[in-house]
Amino acid sequence: MAEPQILLCGGTGILGGAIAGRLKARGIPFRVLVRPGRSAAAPTGTGVEHVVGDLRDPASLRVAVAGVATVISTANAVSRVLAGEGDLSIRDVDDRGYANLIAACEQAGVERFVYASMLGDFGAARTPFTDAKLATERRLQAS
Question: Residue 82: its pLDDT value, please?
Answer without folding.
Answer: 76
